[in-house]
Amino acid sequence: MYERQELYDKAREYYEQAYACMIEVFAETDKRTLSVMSDLALCYDIQEEKDKAIEMYLKCYELHKNEYGVNNQLTISVYYNLGCLYYDQQKYDLAMPIMTDCYERRVIALGKNHISSLDIMHAIASLYGEIGNEGKAYDMFVERVEIYRQFYGSDSKTTLYEIEDLVKWLFIKRKCFNKLKDMLLIHGNVVIDCMVKMIKIL
User: Fold this and answer.
1) Fold category of 1-68 in CATH
2) What is the pLDDT of residues 67-79, one digit of tens each?
3) What are the structural domain ranges in the chain?
């Protein structure tokens, strides 16, 4: 509730008290304790206390991994949050192996077309763009669009949103107009409509 109201100071105070209580009442590896640890790490992250957030994410991840295994979905979620923190800090050399590892484990457990896998795929594609590997980024974005198209259908709002997201990325980069031509051949008017919207904004 506090987080929804963006009262992060209150949320942090609550989670710190809850964490201290959980350690006394339950084992540190209890899922309830680990859930509070993860939420507390997120509070530190949001409040820009990155060192505390990293320390808490790492501790939570190690406990999750040792108690429930590396392929446990909560273990992966905690590890992925750590990768996102490194991404936000532009520590791409630290973020990439974590995100790649999380993606591979998500795909094994849930499949490529699961929303959790697709979310991590988007983050990795964006990360490739940030480090200058725009070809790899484009390939991953296109693969996402194709997965959405196969799963939801070519005319679904979800698929159209993904196409628009890719067009925005290509348009903003401005180095990828040849790729826009490729998309025009595949998706036609959808791409044109997206480009018209962005031209109006600019």
Assistant:
1) 1.25.40
2) 999 999 999 999 9
3) 1-68, 69-106+115-131, 132-202
